[in-house]
Amino acid sequence: MSGWCRPAEALNLIDAVPTTRGVPVTGRWAASVGGRRAVRQNRRVPVHLITDPDDERIADYRALTDVELRTRWEPPHGLFIAEGELVLRRALRAGYPVRSYLVDAKRVDQLADLDTGDAPIYAATPDVLQQATGFHVHRGVLASFRRRPQPPAAEVLAAARRVVILEDVNNHTNLGAIFRAVAGLGVDAVLLSPTCADPLYRRSVRVSMGEVFAVPYAKLDPWPDALAEVRAAGFTVLAMTPAPDAVPIQHLDAGQRARAALLLGAEGAGLTRAAMDASDVRVVIPMRRGVDSLNVAAATAVACWELGRDDPL
Ligand SMILES: C[S@@+](CC[C@H](N)C(=O)[O-])C[C@H]1O[C@@H](n2cnc3c(N)ncnc32)[C@H](O)[C@@H]1O
Hints:
Structural class: alpha/beta
Oligomer: single chain
Bound molecules: S-adenosylmethionine
Strand order of the largest sheet: 11-10-9-14-12-15-13
Low-confidence stretches: 1-43
Radius of gyration: 23 Å
């Protein structure tokens, strides 16, 4: 086969291929449509059919719904899982190296234009995918990526004008929503206390729509002493609190807004006294109707928008 082919053709297995219930047992995955991608047109990547959910080749994808197990296992093993085509493409664009792909065999052609490098592509039926991962993989596409070393906080701060700092935000959904808001609303980086959740956990990645790959982040350790490092870098640390006696965010002066570090706490407990004491100003987003606080991701979005509202777009 030469020349480029349409994605559907790309999966037309080039060799005579035996199938199991309509699924190719082995195949070739050729490249895509026209333009620059045609350069890779002759690259053909084997697609390996997985029929046993316990197959060791897909060990990276085991028990994906067991949050405790996964959060203990993924970071020390230097990997994370991306789910869905859009998120996976964002991770690739951000330069994360792929370990493998695991896809619904019916959807392999969705990724036919990717330069998959040396990473193996595994395909399985929805049943096998579900048994292996523990959930119905309705997006049909998973990939396992290698983590990269996190930059030191000093490096992230040096490149930023405005940052968000999170204390003990250990809910993956909130964390993902925060990264998405930060990316969209003009904040340059996120700094995390040591007890925050992992931004590269599958749910954070998905809720962030892949923005965890675009926004630099680092750990602030020791906590809260390292907040002194943030202030030394020229930032004003704004402790976000629903307390009605704090400064309303819209009343911050130009000096306080110029190089702002928005510090937010967890659902329930909010910011610790020690973190508040290590900040410069306590700041509130005024609320109505007796509501006592906003969700931390909602508060982050409002505060980011308020601080960036005069930025040129
Ligand atoms: C659900 S709230 C925690 C509520 C906790 N009872 C408290 O008093 O902080 C989670 C975080 O969102 C931020 N937050 C929520 N509502 C806010 C508001 N109206 N103004 C400023 N920050 C707010 C704070 O940083 C808070 O620590």
